[in-house]
# Entry
Amino acid sequence: MLQALARRDIRPDVIIGTSAGALNGAWLAAGSSPEDLDELAQVWIKLKRSTVFPVDPLNLTAVLLGRSDHLVSDSGIRKLLKDNLRFERMEDAPIPLHVVVTDVLTGKDVLVSKGDAIDAISASAAIPGVLPTVTIDGRIFMDGGAVNNTPITHAVQLGADPIWVLPTGAPCALTRQPRTALGMALHGLTLAINHRMASDVSRFESVVDLRVAPPLCPLEVNPADFSHAEEMIDRARVQTAEWLDAGPVRAGQANLLIPHGH
# Structure
């Protein structure tokens, strides 16, 4: 989606991301040219599940014994950010960047715009129960997607208009349930995310100029499976380009976001 926008010289003035969107947003905040986005695509294509979700048998044992609140370490995501992030603090991003996190104790979504960028982005991507929470200024945060994965509300509050919404989508044509605990956890979170997003689109599409890129469907890829990245990026680029050529849809966009059958 980002590649298709960049190739039409559609560049952001402000970026708001959550979870994987925080990772992509951090890259975009430092460079939004077609070449920058091609480099980002290569990062995803080369990524392996073991990099993002490194399995440690000792930690799994601790989980079973009730001594740990997360399945895997966030060392993989932090190394990924350290190797690729082009600024150290959120306020130093060349294009203003905001990431959404969830306050574990209050359950409210919080917009983080300042401070250590790796901490902020790691917190935004800290999938509940899968990755560890992150403490920032004495507050405990987890994945913003638990409450507000596509932060249209924050974009509206910041005065953004038009707002380009790039949804990750959801497995919309599953023929069987995910086979792993990680896959099932991510699937459940993805379903909740999409229903919240559809509600926000319905709420705001008559208030601001919302441009919601259609997510891929059919989509049967497990959210924890990174082996189809190149295929999905290619499909999304072509589909988004066709959508842009046809003229962005303005009405009834929420219907694009609800998973459905064949």
Remarks:
- Residues 258-262 have pLDDT under 50 and may be disordered.
- Residues 181-204 form the longest helix (24 residues).
